[in-house]
Specification:
about 270 residues, two-stranded antiparallel ribbon, 8 helices
Length: about 270
C-alpha cells in the first residue's frame, strides 16, 4: 500500500524456440512491432505513461512486456484502466505498417551488431552454444542473425502472434497500491474478454539427442584484449512426459562458468 509506483507485466510463454523451425528471430521482432502505435497519436512509444517507463524482452522460452508509472492518487483509477487496456491490446493485435516494420528490422539488426560487433566473447558464445547443442533451438541466437533479420516480415510476426499470444498462454502481474476492486473490474472488462485459444505443443521440450563427449575449442581473435576460459555442462533429462520434467527442461539447460585474465597474467594462471 505504500508503493510509489504501479507496474503491470504480461509474460507470454513463447519465445524464439517456438518459432517454426527454431530460433530465427521473429519472436523478438514481434516484440518490437508491438510497441508501435500504442498511443493516441499512432507513434512508436515504448513508455505508455509520460513520466513512466516501459520495455520488453525476449528469451528462448518466453516474451515479456511491462509498464510502470508513478502513483498519483487523483488519476490512479484511470491510469490502472489505461495500463490493463494496454496489456490486453498487446494480446489482441499487431499495429504496424511497412515503413515502421522496415525501421524495426534495422533496429533489430543494429542491436545484433552492437551486441556482437565489438564483443568477441558474445560472438564466441553464439558459436559455442551452437556446437554444444546442435540443431536445438535453445542453442541458437534469440534475436536472429544478419542473414535471417532482413527476411523478417509483418506477416510472419502476425502469424506468430496469432499462434502463441493467447490469454491461456500468458501471465499478467500487477504490483503497487492497487485496490483489488478496481483491478478486478478492469480485469473483467479487458482481460476476461481475450481469446483463450489453445496453443500448439512445443517440440523443443523433448530435447535434442546429445551424445556424451567433450569439445575443446581454442580460438583466437585479434579484437580480444583478455583471455577467457569457459566451462559449460549440459544437463539432460528423460522425455518430459510430466509437468515437473517439462518445467525442468524449460528452466535449466546449460550450467556455465567462465573467467578472464589479462594477457600478462595468463601464463602464470594457466600454468
Amino acid at each position: 500500500p505504500y508503493a510509489k509506483t504501479v507496474t503491470g507485466t504480461v509474460v507470454i510463454r513463447a519465445g524464439c524456440a517456438d518459432e517454426p523451425g527454431g530460433c530465427d528471430g521473429i519472436a523478438h521482432y514481434l516484440e518490437h512491432l508491438l510497441f508501435i502505435n500504442r498511443d493516441g497519436e499512432h507513434r512508436s512509444k515504448v513508455a505508455l505513461f509520460p513520466s513512466g517507463n516501459g520495455n520488453g524482452w525476449t528469451s528462448h522460452r518466453a516474451t515479456g512486456y511491462f509498464q510502470t508509472f508513478p502513483v498519483k492518487p487523483e488519476t490512479l483509477p484511470a491510469d490502472i484502466e489505461k495500463l490493463v487496456s494496454h496489456l490486453a491490446g498487446l494480446m489482441r493485435e499487431v499495429l504496424s505498417d511497412e515503413t515502421q516494420a522496415a525501421r524495426e528490422r534495422n533496429v533489430v539488426l543494429q542491436e545484433h551488431q552492437q551486441r556482437t560487433g565489438s564483443n568477441v566473447f558474445a560472438r564466441f558464445s553464439l558459436k559455442r552454444n551452437a556446437l554444444l547443442i546442435p540443431g536445438d533451438p535453445l542453442g541458437q541466437s534469440i534475436g536472429g542473425t544478419p542473414q535471417s533479420i532482413p527476411n523478417f516480415t509483418t506477416e510472419r510476426a502476425i502469424a506468430f502472434h496469432k499462434t502463441w499470444y493467447s490469454a491461456a498462454n500468458a501471465n499478467f502481474i500487477f504490483t503497487g497500491p492497487i485496490s483489488a476492486a478496481d483491478l478486478e473490474a478492469q480485469v473483467k472488462r479487458h482481460l476476461d474478454t481475450l481469446d483463450r485459444r489453445d496453443v500448439p505443443k512445443r517440440p523443443w521440450l523433448q530435447g535434442a539427442a546429445i551424445e556424451p563427449g567433450r569439445h575443446v575449442i581454442d580460438e583466437a581473435d585479434p579484437e580480444a584484449r583478455q583471455v577467457a576460459v569457459y566451462y559449460d555442462k549440459i544437463i539432460t533429462y528423460p522425455a518430459p512426459d510430466t509437468a515437473e520434467r517439462q518445467l525442468i527442461r524449460s528452466g535449466i539447460h546449460l550450467i556455465k562458468f567462465w573467467f578472464s585474465v589479462s594477457r600478462d597474467e595468463q601464463q602464470r594462471r594457466f600454468a
